[in-house]
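User: Hi! I'm working on a homework problem where we have to compare a predicted structure to a textbook description. Could you give me the structure for the chain below?
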Amino acid sequence: MSTTKKLKLGLVGGGPGSFIGAIHLNGALMDGMFELAAGAFSSDPEKSRIRGEELMLPPNRVYGSYDEMFEKELELPESERIDVVCIVTPNNVHFDPTIKALKYGFHVALDKPLTLNYQEAKELYKAVKASDKLFLLTHTYSGYPMIKQAKQMIAEGQIGEVRKVYVEYPQGWLWKLLESEENKQAAWRTDPTKNGLAGCMGDIGTHAFHMAEYITGLKVSQLCADLYIKIEGRPIDDDGVVLMRFENGASGVLMASQTDTGAENNLKVRVYGDKGGLEWEQELNNSLLVRWPDQPDQIYRAGTGYLGSLANENTRTPAGHPEGYVEAFANLYRNFARCIYAQQKGETPKPEWEDFPGIEDGIRGMAFIDHVLKSNKSDQKWTPFIVEK
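Assistant: Happy to help. Predicted structure tokens:
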């Protein structure tokens, strides 16, 4: 695709010591479609200045707040100002900068989940829908080539009608009360005022939920949740299980925990249809296991010639050259950029380019959190899954 200029990126968050900010930036810059032009890296202007120096930005493009960045950037000529705002802050600082960025006329890339709570999500949904700007929600794992291969195989009916979905996300990093040890990541992720009222289910359960719906193409219609606080002194859940019913009658089980001692980050999904099954896990992300009832199991590998268009469009290296987490982010950002360029030219993007999570995924994720919390408190076994917009 021929382009006229790189898209200029303005970062909100991602200050000194930020984990996810650096990942977003590396992913966005990988394909040369974006360049970092400005940033409001911290609510502390001095920390923002320090991070700006580390990234070698001109001092006049490093801001003390996102409000200042939006206002000052709009004073610049259109050819110089930022085009896209990337928001990599704790959940309580998702809604306001996103609403304002859209109002000021910037495209937005936002780390998940969508907002702090469901009410904010509904307001943001309306704002995105009313805007002509594009919106990316970075559910990272949907960017992996073999997840896209699985999605396409299911959509094409290769494993038949989906009957059962298992999705599990075990982590162990919160196996003790890390938030009492001045651990910055643990502190905000276990604080309901910054993370939201769902802890583990809000942080990684939303990834698992998105994976279940994304890979199958099915929507959850009912759920039954059981949440736990395994570590004494923690105010919000750090472990849980959700039973799911899908719109086609398939059943599902979602398990998420941040207290599975010794576990790293192995998101895993298994989908079984009436003709065959698929299995994928994040720690072996270049492989997709395909199971059949009447022939040997098959292992599909990234970078090979027999994959479908979705996987090929998001594969960067030949078979045997591992791709991973940053590349999955990069796939989301590349598809997002391609769609922005197409919009600028009045062209229709390829369907493969439009395959990135957006506002529909975001509001369903927040509805998932809301329904899980209600179900956990209810004596009723099943809670209907209804998305309000």
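For your comparison, note the following. The mean pLDDT is 96. The longest helix spans residues 325-345. Good luck with the assignment!
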